[in-house]
């Protein structure tokens, strides 16, 4: 009789959904996360809010609290975080990001200096931000919102 391991593998690929972490992460981006990696304030992490453990979230660590971690969205207007859901359990830390189709399209548009057609309304502000940022998006995640892309 063989026994199946219930432990998580140390590395995991996560696909980003939603706009709560823009401009750092865009829908369709992929993250390589490491379970058991050290967590510090400013890290982008994979977590679960204790009040809603069925949902996995990608957020930025603000601080450790007595009951867990305080996680924040980079784009508070487009997502919820510990301010609404309370403390979270951190499962893994994001180490690398691979741009998805939307990131590559916006980077090309920013490099060309023009966008063909009007982007959907939620992306209009993001498109303006990327036009003013560097043409290439970071491969390494910034450790905090203040670190330059």
Sum up the structure in keywords.
149 residues; alpha+beta; Umud Fragment, subunit A; 2 domains; six-stranded antiparallel β-sheet; 3 helices; 19% helix
What does this structure look like?
- The structure is a single chain.
- With 149 residues, the chain is an alpha+beta fold.
- It is built from 3 helices and 6 strands.
- Helix 2 packs across helix 3.
- 26% of the residues are buried.
> What share of the residues does DSSP label as strand, in percent?
25-35%
The number of domains is: 2
Largest sheet: 6 strands, antiparallel
The level 1 CATH classification of the largest domain is Mainly Beta
Point out poorly predicted stretches: 1-6, 114-122, 134-138
Total DSSP helices: 3
Q: How do the helices and strands follow one another from N- to C-terminus? A: EEEEEHEHH
> In order across it, which strands form the biggest sheet?
1-2-6-3-4-5
CATH architecture of the largest domain: Ribbon
The radius of gyration computed from the alpha-carbon positions, rounded to a whole number of angstroms, is: 17 Å
| Mean pLDDT across every amino acid position | 76
Count of β-strands:
6
Give the distance, in angstroms, between the N- and C-terminal Cα atoms: 52 Å
CATH 4th-level superfamily of the largest domain: Umud Fragment, subunit A
- Helix percent band: 10-25%
């Amino acid at each position: 009789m063989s026994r199946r391991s219930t432990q998580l593998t140390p590395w995991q690929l996560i696909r980003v959904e939603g706009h709560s972490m823009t401009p750092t992460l865009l829908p369709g981006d992929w993250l390589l996360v490491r379970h058991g990696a050290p967590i510090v304030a400013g890290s982008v992490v994979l977590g679960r809010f204790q009040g809603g453990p069925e949902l996995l979230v990608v957020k930025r660590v603000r601080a450790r609290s007595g009951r867990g971690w305080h996680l924040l969205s980079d784009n508070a207007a487009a997502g919820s975080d510990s301010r609404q859901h309370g403390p979270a359990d951190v499962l893994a830390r994001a180490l690398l990001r691979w741009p998805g189709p939307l990131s590559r399209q916006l980077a090309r548009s920013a490099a060309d200096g023009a966008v063909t057609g009007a982007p959907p309304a939620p992306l209009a502000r993001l498109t303006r931000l990327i036009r003013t940022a560097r043409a290439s998006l970071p491969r390494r995640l910034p450790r905090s919102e203040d670190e330059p892309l």
